Amino acid sequence: MRITEPLKNFKSEIIFNDMEEVDPSYDWNRVVYLMHCSRAIDQIEVNKLYPEKAIQTQFSAKGHELTQILLAMQLGLPGDAATVYYRSRPFLLASGLSLEDAFAATLTRSGGVNDGRDVGVVFNFPNRKGLSVLPGQGGVGAQYTPAVGWAQSLVFYRNHLKHSDYKKSIAVALGGDASTATNGFWSALNIATTQRLPFLFFIEDNGYGISVSSDMQTPNGNIAENLSAFGNLRVVEVDIARPNLAAAAIRKMVSLVREGHGPGLIRLKVPRLCGHSIQDSQAYKNAEQMVSEHLEDPLHKLKDYLTPRCLSPEQWDRLAVAAQADVSEALERALERPQPNLDDVQKYLYYEGFNDNDDQSYSAPTLLRPTETVEAPKRINMVTGIRMTLAHELSVNPRMVVFGEDVGAKGGVHTATLGLQDKFGAHRVFDTSLSEEGIIGRAVGMAYAGLKPVAEIQFRKYAEPAMEQLHDCGTVRWRTANRFSAPIVVRIPVGYGKSADLWHAESKEATWIRAVGWRVAFPSNAEDAVGLLRTALRSKDPVIFCEHRAMLDAAWARRNYPGDDHLTPFGKARLLAQGQEMTIITWGAMVERCSQAVAAFGEDVDLLDLRTLAPWDKNAVFESVRKTGRCLIVHEDNLTCGFGAEISAVVTEHLFSALRAPVMRVAFPDLPCPHNKALFQSLIPNQGTILEKMMALKEYENV
């Protein structure tokens, strides 16, 4: 086993001798017991529960148990946290997960780790007094950046909130060798090393990602060797065929990270004793490989090492028998649990009550009083309103942080954060590496840790690399049955500006409305931007906050500053014009264009600015359409599957008898956004095209 320690231009090597004595820092009786428990659970699932169709699938941890249990035994300080993957059940058992809950998870019974809502091996384990296991995710590599976000939060708590309990706490991410090829792994690696975070990559290399060998994931199949010269990273390699060396390596690496020596990575060579899942027959291996791997079973290696050094064969056997008995009893108790309550399946998509990582102070109007009072300008544009709201909320919430690409010294490419770093410091307002996966993933981890992260994505198109993290964030409260939540705020400038093209001018807000669990705000003017952003920053749910580029400095969008306590509720539309002829529903930059069309039409219409799209104000829409009998929806997103289609469907379903004409829409055609100005103007809804559709709706005759 070798540990390399590259720092600047200096590399030292620490060589561990082949120790014969048993490491006394581990409770080896418990190690043996837990290994047998994990192995027994796997065997029961494979031989009984899956054949009987009591479980839908099975993911075995066979061969991975020893190192995970050893790692968990080195963790447990308040503030310690880990993210896991589908083979991590032994780690959970060693971290405090009960045998009964382990079975209940795969049986999808009530309780467990998710009340039957998620795959049984997508674990979580909240524990503020010791080791927390952050919510697992189904995507390979998605576990890394939330763990990095937690690690960065530990530094923030220590250095800026003076939280002494977290002085030596660390974050760990467990992953297989295939996960080292993912966007999430490399993003986390860059963040952890550039920030010198208390973070450990724990890579269990069994040589395969389903059927693809590890040499297709990284050159020569050895991520540790390839990263041995990576800046600010300690790297360890160990083969768990030598249990004493594995134990020493894990203990040493955890200690180094705890003592502030920066992040580390440990690669543990483990045998592939089972397929990816029970459906994987491993037909891609030959018989010789299968035999060779089973000869490396760590359970047998551990027995050879511990007996008779510290356990007699009889003691080993007693631990095995006890584990089998306890597992069998736990299975019976889990089978007695009821199925999840069908009436509860819609609970916890949004905030309904506090869990351990909900910040109960968010609902308070202020946490701290600003040290200075700045007289607000009477009339402001939207970008100024956004900046002032961020500044005020930073001043009253010491756990709020604002970050993204170029938000620091530059003040944001749209100037929304201009001057905030100077006022609040680089620990509160900071730049990130160019990785949207890293921006959103770390925001999720920070929210788990109790911070209020406000992440900026520079343009709507740039959110695509972060889609997995964004979707997972929206479901976390629901899929953990309210054990965890991640109420982040993601600010995204959207739509056209002074120029337009298919890379910077997308709107596509419907994506977030379909991404369940998110609140979505889309203000059209400075006053609503202030009120909606402040509501978002104090929300207990994750929020996508759309900032339309064309409205940031638009004269029409300028309003009087509504004050530092102004809040605009979500789900409440604003009625901008009243009339009997028809109802126009719109949001964002289209509000101004619809206002122009209404003025040209003669103003005998109801004009509704929805302001928020998740939730949207159905009551206001229904009340208006019942009155007018005609409905026109105008938006900038593409026509097909744009949010206007959903509003149209809902209005038609519930108000069909009240309609005097079909619901009509004006939207961007199903095309990318062209860069040529004339082409763009021919496609974007404008006063003329909106007015034309209004006339068609007015003149419609129901033959």
Notes on the protein architecture:
The chain has 703 residues and is of the alpha/beta class. The protein folds into three domains: 2-338, Rossmann fold, CATH 3.40.50; 379-560, Rossmann fold (3-Layer(aba) Sandwich); 574-699, Rossmann fold, CATH 3.40.50.920. Helix content is 36%, strand content 15%. It contains 22 helices and 24 strands. Strand 1 and strand 2 form a beta hairpin. Helix 2 packs parallel to helix 8 (243-258). The protein is elongated and about 95 Å long. The N and C termini lie far apart (84 Å). 53% of the residues are buried.
Percent helix range: 25-40%
CATH class of the largest domain: Alpha Beta
How much is the radius of gyration in Å? 28 Å
Residue windows where pLDDT falls under 50 for at least 5 positions:
1-18, 360-372
Strand proportion, as a percent range, falls in 15-25%
CATH superfamily of the largest domain: Thiamin diphosphate (ThDP)-binding fold, Pyr/PP domains
Gross geometry: elongated
Tell me the number of structural domains.
3
Structure at a glance:
The chain is of the alpha/beta class. The chain folds into three domains: 2-338, 3-Layer(aba) Sandwich (Rossmann fold), CATH 3.40.50.970; 379-560, Rossmann fold (3-Layer(aba) Sandwich); 574-699, Rossmann fold, CATH 3.40.50.920. Helix 2 (65-73) packs parallel to helix 3.
Keywords, please?
703 residues, alpha/beta, Rossmann fold, 3 domains, eight-stranded mixed sheet, seven-stranded mixed sheet, 22 helices, 36% helix, 15% strand, disordered N terminus
